[in-house]
Design a protein that fits this description.
This protein has 378 residues and is of the alpha/beta class. It contains ten helices and 16 strands.
Length: 378
């Protein structure tokens, strides 16, 4: 990934509702209902849900192409409808179909795209340097002179991505761009999106492929036009009481419209209650003696064979300590849950580092000592 500084855009939706006239001309049809979201800069979000869940409507709303009936959607602090000119160039969009002319060589196609996406005052050397950078970012240097129409499916998709990266967008929206890719190519493309997020770009990807969504920081799952989950993949399994992510789709379809949306909003309300119910004396809470439940970390340690599936964590009780094996402590995030009012003592290789309150919201705690890493409270 080239050393190009990018400032990721945040996203805030406060009970966003989108309606359109019904087919019969009487009344309104709700496409999105009461959508509440807070997306942080540099996050990689995968958007999932059955057909008709509202995924495409959400994308079009983010792009300012859908009128919002109630409330507002802010990207980088700007209203997507009122500040469309301000956001132009700050949002990249990779649709399902390839956007580059099939008859042009890759480099020529990017020159054409740069004339639209880069500022008018960009001089030729800057333009060439930018094209070289994005070709390196997406791994297409070796085919820069090949015709777009002769590229493999994965290469053509990366060329589309390269065109959107020319302007170093703060938000990259990818709308089912991997639907036509084989599993190996899709995995590489998702890895590329994750790398873009680490480099600073906020990435929102709509996908039907489930094998590689664990590369995302969070999953946004929609059902019947409502948010029914927004958080980690591991906890989603527990929330829907299923063993596989694919079964979430069945759970959504098997319940009446609105059931899972109501369940999610109740969970949000409970989290807000937890956030305001912290112990007054952190030291006393940390000293509370409690047993450590059998915690499973994806790819680390012993799997949990409980009702939530092989990779579902069980709760830590108030004051329990979480030991992260030092040999594995730098390879990823540990998804944990803490009971109401609990403080979790974070350890690295049995060396206590700090104790932090559980607020009911995602947060990160730096872990020092041997094999340092991060612990994700969710």
């Amino acid at each position: 990934m080239a050393d190009k500084q990018t400032t990721g855009l945040s996203g805030i939706a406060a009970k966003v509702t989108v309606t359109v006239p019904s087919g019969g001309g009487v009344g309104q049809k709700t496409l999105l209902n009461n959508v509440i979201l807070q997306i942080n800069p540099r996050e990689f979000i995968c958007v999932l849900g059955p057909s008709g869940a509202g995924k495409s409507t959400l994308v079009r709303t983010m792009l300012g192409e859908r009128e919002i009936t109630a409330s507002q959607l802010l990207l980088g602090g700007h209203d997507v409808l009122e500040k469309a000119d301000t956001l132009r160039g700050a949002i990249g969009y990779v649709p399902q179909r390839d956007i580059n002319p099939a008859s042009l060589p890759v480099e020529r196609a990017l020159h054409f795209a740069s004339s639209v996406r880069l500022p008018a005052e960009t001089v030729a050397p800057q333009r060439r340097a930018t094209i070289d950078r994005v070709l390196g970012d997406v791994g297409l240097e070796s085919v820069r002179n090949a015709t777009i129409g002769k590229l493999s499916g994965g290469e053509a998709k990366r060329a589309s991505l390269a065109a959107e990266l020319l302007a170093t967008p703060g938000l990259l929206v990818v709308d089912e761009a991997t639907s036509s890719l084989n599993p190996a190519t899709e995995a590489r493309f998702m890895r590329l999106l994750a790398a873009q997020a680490r480099a600073g770009t906020t990435v929102i990807a709509v996908t039907h492929h489930l094998d590689n969504v664990d590369r995302a920081d969070k999953l946004l799952i929609l059902g019947h036009g409502e948010v029914v989950w927004f958080g980690s993949r591991v906890e989603a399994l527990g929330h829907f009481d299923v063993h596989r992510l694919a079964d979430v789709y069945l759970a959504i379809e098997d319940k009446p419209a609105g059931s899972w949306g109501t369940s999610w909003r109740q969970r949000l309300a409970e989290n807000e209650t937890l956030a305001t119910d912290q112990p007054a004396d952190p030291a006393a809470a940390s000293a509370t003696t409690a047993a450590l439940a059998d915690v499973s970390i994806p790819g680390i340690g012993r799997p949990d064979r409980g009702r939530h599936g092989d990779h579902s964590p069980r709760p830590l009780l108030a004051g329990a300590s979480c030991t992260w094996p030092e040999s594995n402590s730098a390879i990823g995030r540990c998804h944990l849950s803490v009971e109401k009012g609990g403080w979790c003592l974070v350890s690295a290789g049995l060396t206590a580092v700090t104790s932090l309150p559980y607020s009911g919201q995602p947060g990160f705690a730096a872990v020092g000592g041997k094999g340092s890493g991060s612990v994700h409270y969710s």
